[in-house]
Amino acid sequence: MYNNKMRQFNISVIGLSGTEKDRGQVGVGKSCLCNRFMRPMADDYFIDHISVLSQSDFSGRIVNNDHFLYWGEVRKTTDEGVEYNFNIIEQTEFMDDSTFQAFKVGKMDPYLKRCTATKVFSAEKLMYICKNQLGIEKEYEQKVMPDGRLSIDGFVVVFDVSPVPNRSVEKQVEFVQNAIANILKNKKPLVLVTTKNDDAYELYVREAEKISQRKDYKSTVQLIETSAHESINIDLAFLMLAQMIDKVKNRVKIVSYQESAKSRKELLDIRSEAVTRLIRNQITDYHILWSQGSKMLSQYREWNEFLNIFGHEAGQKLFRRHMKKLRDDHLNKKLHQYLDKFALALEYLLPDISALNISDDDAWECARNYLQNHIEFDQYFYEFPQVSWTDFLDMDVPDDETRIPFDVLETNEAETVFRNYLNSVQQDKKKIGWKQQFKMLLEESGFVTPGKQLSEVRVLFMGRECFEALSEHDCQQIYDIHQDEIIEKSKQNFVELLLEHAQYFLQFKNVDIITQEDVRQITDVIQEDSRYKMLDRLDQERRVMLVQHLRFIHCPIRDHCPFFNNCVDNLIEEVLADKSATNHKMGGNVGGGGGGWKTTGNGSERTLNLLIVGSEHLASDLLNDIRICTGSKGEYIYENQTYYLNYRIANGDMEAFKAIDVYSSGLICVYSNQQSFETLKDNLERTLLCNLELEDKFENLPIVLVYQPQDLKENEVEYLRSEGMRLSEMLHCDFIDHTQNHQKYVYDILNIVILSLKLSEMKSYEPYPSSNHTDLRILVCIYCGDQYDIENIVQPLLAESTLVKANEHCIIVDVFIGDAKRRVEFILSSYHGTNQYRDELIHGYIYIYSAKRRSSLANLNILAAQNANIPLQLVAVTESGGVNAFFNNEICQFLITEGNALADRYKGSFMTFSADQYVKFAFYNPFLKIAWDNKYEVENLHVEESITLDSGEGTLENSVNQMPRPPPRHESYMLSNTLGTDGSGSENYEMLPTRSLNSLNEERDISLDEIYDDNNEKPKHLHQNCTESDSCASSTERRVRQQNAYYKANKKAGTTTKKNKKKKVAIPVQTPRVPPFGAYVSPPEIPLHYQRMAAAAAAGEKKKADSGVVPEFMKSDKSPEYSMVPELTAVSIFGAENLPEYNMNSKCLKDFEKLEKRRIKEEQARLRKLQEKEKEQEKKLKRKLKQNAKGLTETTEAQFGKLMITSDKDEIPIFLIKCVEFIEKEGLDSEGIYRVPGSRAHVDMLFQRFEDDTNTIIDVLDIPVNAVATALKDFFSKRLPPLFSKDIIKELEEIAGSRGVGSSKLNVEVKTDRSCRLIALKSLLQKLPPINFAILKYIFQHFVHVSDNSKLNSMDSKNLAICWWPTLIPIDFTDMGHFEQLRPYLEDIVQTMIDQFPYLFCGKDAFVMV
Fold first, then answer.
1. For 285-311, how does the pLDDT look when each residue is reduced to its tens digit (9 = 90+)?
2. What is the pLDDT of residues 353-389, one digit of tens each?
3. Among 154, 319, 1134, 1373, which residue is least crowded by beta carbons within 10 Å?
């Protein structure tokens, strides 16, 4: 029998404690166990408890400078009615939040010894409730530990069975065994409690069982499985220990965790179901509030038990769910009543649906308008514009109101009622549906083939409703339409079959008479194809089509094209005509992104759309000034022309610049102080120089920078004025100072915008020069019948702002190739139309073919073989889907693979893009570079073909005059003002001096050709800015050749220069020598003429000439004309062995040398001036950076120090680790991660939280994953020092191949071989400091994880490289040309580091280049 006297027990709860290194990332669950035992109600249970404290909290009365907590006193009763009183002590170890080490309190024993002590002392120690209690103890219940001391009667030893990072099970087993040994040595009872069984790891559970079953414990250690979160077996553990202390024989039964969890779930389900029934029965009015409802329910036992178990929050959630259901049920009931009345109203108000005279698409809208305007509307409907019908029902609606709220008709249910009514009066329209079904039946049937009669297939449709319901006449009519469609489709397929056999039909190209034997042979080749058999019943038409195809092969002209009006030549003419018409209609809207004005109806008035950008109130103030000057109507008169002004205000961030659209006339940027200037400058520079997405919007768009000083000192005003002028010079825009009189500066702004637009408009209509000189002629070939929009294909060419239409098929574009702008003529033609350009000089071919059409590639193969010696670019156009089209379509995969192989066979380039993808002109830049590099060889080949005439009349003298002249020398590209620009759109950017310094010359060097031109034509200039990208011979060599050509051409003054066209004779070509295996092959990047000059240099060492040596200036790397030419002696250029080739007399040679020496001296003087100027600018810039950086270094550590705290395991910043872990947890399936920016407010909040507490858990901050991704990028770009030094970045550029072969320190083989470049990249990364390498490895490992999930997030390695390279490799770009030159190479570097991560960062040997 039990003793009825209540017993008092002091219980100590112990478990593994200490630093994170000792106990793992989280504790073993002692505090939660005590919390659930002491305060079992859900509202009193807290998950988070203290472990890391400040010194003040540790010294407070709760902790009281002790490493244990007093949880208070609680009374518990067993099932037999025996009551026990418990005082609970939790032995733990508190960490200092500044050192993260345990607090030192006098002479302190180790935790293992302290936690097993049988007595605890602490005077005036208060009871612990929750961590929020610290510091505000008076607001919570204050209960002091009795007598300041307790004698421990028993121990609860805690063993955590959940997996915890950084904690091994061996460490916990060792601690528990030692603790049990000490307790047993003190002869105190104990209970071994496993916690967190709701997240248990089976291996850890077995370890706990092994401990309790040890023989040396002699069955004195009882094991009880618990879960504090689920409130399972908590009381059982403490009651068992109490009975062991009390030495009760009949102890409580120990129940396993599974059984207790099952019982607990059944109890919870019963409580939830009971409360749900209670709420359903007691709460029947959805107008009742929570405060009223909870008071009504509080008198019921079921409700109170539910709140004790689940808490008030769960009760409130259940209550509100019931309220919503009551309201929805009430609304649905009323809605159905209204709909029943609406159906009756339709029968009365709309008996004849034809009275509406409407189509099915807008029937419902017209019906509502009809009902609303009906004379008897008020009898059936009523309206309340202020509230909806659902809100109106929440009010007290009169019971006698039987009408329908009219906004009920806005519901889908009302529309369904109307549709049903509409269908009921339109039964006669079912016939149309039957016709459609029969048509679909014909399409799905495989037995209906071209030429079959309906009578032959009628039996197949017997019994079908659609066929039986239609009359004979209707069936025959539908069948005839279907026959016409499939016959036309079969004919198209047959034409496609013939086109696919283009190689076979090539033999009939020059055959004048086609015999029946020829037809039979063709039939034998194609007769097994299903497309041939499909026309078996229409053999006569099939023969006609075959003959027409042979005629097209024999004479491939537009009239014979099998696609007739859809011939590419016709479509190109229409597209170019539409382009010209659009340009004329747009008036001032010139340029790619342009702005411009809109002309009003009378043609004499125009509208200016101004975008005003400024921080805070600046934009609004400027707008008010403009309105004062232009009046309320916004009228402004300039040179007798009236302009109407429209305004738009935006703040100064990047979104403001994205707001610029095609109708923007001008961008006005205003600033007043240092902060607004820096914000504006940063966004302007990033937008204009680095953001490719907005690049086209700013071409030819007038920009005005306005300075409005406010409350500044005189030196600050002057400084900001000079900075603004400097920024305006860099952006080539106008600068306005507000210190002028009020009206004057507004008028200046408007005049600048109008004048800029007028100049752009004048340039857009400027006639193209009659000389029509172009640097390159590119033939763009498009195959007829390819299923894509021609306009989308040629859009990259037509979108260029410098485009000029030369004729119906030709356009001319000014584009940068290398370091200089070149004029390129693009000839747009069909495949069969290329014959007319056979005898013309073409520098390169762009063949565009469809990646889903075999015939397209078959005909391309023939054309490519005919022009194998000329650079070619193959472009495969895929369907929408890009890469997916390649993997999901076998034909597409085959044609792309074959096209790639074809390009390799003829040493051409190969690219693909989707038909619905927007492609910029830069898509063709690599090919234009190749064409330019091979220009000299192509022109020589063309001359050789031109002079090879069988009659012998053609001479070299004649052919030289027929050679295309070299491209004109461009003037300086340094743009000091907006006047005199060429309309290319490039005037928005300033080309600072590069290696091509002679492009900055103000004077022109005129060759003898220009001085003594017989025909008095406009002087034709030579190549002046030959740089490392030029493929033509050096400037000196060209001058000599052209000089010699002049003398030869003038020997026969009376000879005509007209070319006699005769049949060509094949030119014998020596068989190319194949180098032996292992021999080095010159890379394709080095043009042929440089190799010749290198050979000449070697020969020159043996034969030294008297003519002297090429000046050092010409041999240096800084020479614009010789930057890639090996050091040559003069004899290699002017030596005796070369003189016979050029046929030059000595006098001419001497004159030329004098001219060349004078030019070199002038060039050297000009170069020195430029270098001195650059040095002065660099010094000024350095001084300014020093001044700006003075105060920054002192505060950097204080500002960002916490973010740079490294983790325990390595040297990775804790902020980086937490962001990456969160993104990999939450964002790997987030589409566009790192591409879609996050909210700036969230980003700033995240940084602030980490500044306050480095242990911040991102999961609890409720921050979107895109904001965390943006913060991570900001951390690298703004908070973390650069990972790559400037020297390393230069080496990266060389490895990437962005520098020319001649200018690189790497050898040629490394530059041209991707595997060698990969090895060089690995060596470069190993030069990085260990910390930099570790951070780089960590972030790129994260990129690998992101790209592995690219099917979910659409971020493969290529997209990641595009987003991240500006952040990881920060380079100060001086102009857009420099940026465009480096961008693809830097992207490739970052993509390679992602794709080759195992090799570059993990030391794995195997690697594959992609």
1. 878 888 888 888 888 888 888 888 888
2. 766 666 666 778 888 888 888 888 888 888 877 777 7
3. 1373
Q: What is d(CA 1288, CA 1389) in angstroms, rounded to the nearest whole number?
A: 13
Q: What would the two tokens of residue 1266 be?
A: 């895109």
Per-residue HEC secondary structure of 344-404 comes to HHHHHHCCCHHHHCCCCCCHHHHHHHHHHCCCCHHHHEECCCCCCHHHHHHCCCCCCCCCE
Record the tokens describing residue 200, joined without a space: 């248990």
The DSSP bridge pattern shows strands 404-405 and 844-850 to be unpaired
309: its two tokens: 């178990």
Specify whether the CB–CB gap between 838 and 851 falls below 8 A.
no
Q: What 3 state SS string does 300-317 have?
A: CHHHHHHHHHHCHHHHHH
On the question of pLDDT at 1221 being above 90, the answer is yes
223 contacts 209 by C-beta, under 8 angstroms: yes
Q: What is each CA distance from 1235 to 41, 447, 688, 1350, 1358, in whole angstroms?
A: 47, 52, 19, 13, 12
What's the confidence (pLDDT) of residue 1198? 42
**Nearest alpha carbon to residue 1360 among 1273, 1268, 1267:** 1273
493 pLDDT band, cuts 50/70/90, is very high
Token readout for 549 is: 């195809």
DSSP 1213: B
Distance CA 338, CA 1296 (A): 73
Most confident option among 26-40, 748-762, 1058-1072, 1089-1103: 26-40
Q: Shortest CA distance to 736 belongs to which of 709, 755, 700?
A: 709
* Ramachandran assignment for 146, one of left (phi > 0), alpha (psi -120 to 50 degrees), beta (any other): beta
pLDDT at site 780 = 94
Q: Is 464 exposed, middle or buried (0-12, 13-18, 19+ CB in 10 A)?
A: middle
Q: Which has more confidence, 1073 or 1342?
A: 1342
Which H or E element spans position 71?
A: strand 68-77
Q: How far apart (Å, rounded) are the C-alpha atoms in residues 682 and 410? A: 50
**CA geometry: angle 486, 488, 490, nearest 5 deg:** 65
Instruction: Please check whether residue 254 is in contact with residue 212, taking contact to mean a CB–CB distance below 8 angstroms.
Output: no
- DSSP alpha helices (H): ranges in 501-538? 502-505, 516-526, 530-533
Rounded alpha-carbon distances, angstroms, from residue 267 to 36, 231, 305, 306, 951: 18, 12, 11, 10, 111
**Nearest residue to 143 via CA among 65, 61, 84:** 61
* Cα–Cα nearest to 486, from 445, 457, 546: 445
pLDDT of residue 599: 46
Nearest to 9 by CA among 228, 243, 192: 243
Per-residue DSSP letter, 979: T
| Distance from C-alpha of 671 to C-alpha of 708, rounded to nearest angstrom | 6
428-444 pLDDT per residue, tens: 567 778 888 888 888 88
Cβ-proximal residues to 663 (8 Å cutoff; 6+ apart), any chain: 589, 595, 596, 598, 609
The answer to whether 221 and 211 are in contact (CB under 8 A) is yes
Q: Which of 1101, 1100, 1110 is nearest to 1132 (CA)?
A: 1100
925, 931 Cβ separation under 8 angstroms: no
* DSSP-derived pairing of the beta strands 820-830 and 776-782: parallel
Phi/psi zone of residue 599: left (φ > 0), alpha (ψ -120 to 50 degrees), beta? beta
Express each pLDDT in 691-704 by its tens digit: 444 445 555 678 88
pTM for this model (two decimals): 0.38
Q: Of 604-618, 1004-1018, 1152-1166, 1170-1184, where does the model show the most confidence?
A: 604-618
Q: Give me the pLDDT at residue 41, please.
A: 87
What the block records as the tokens of 355 is: 């009275």
DSSP class of residue 1091 equals H
Burial 390-422 (b: 16+ CB within 10 A, else e): beebeeeeeeeeeebbbbbbeeeebbebbeebb
Residues 1285-1310, mean pLDDT to the nearest whole number: 64
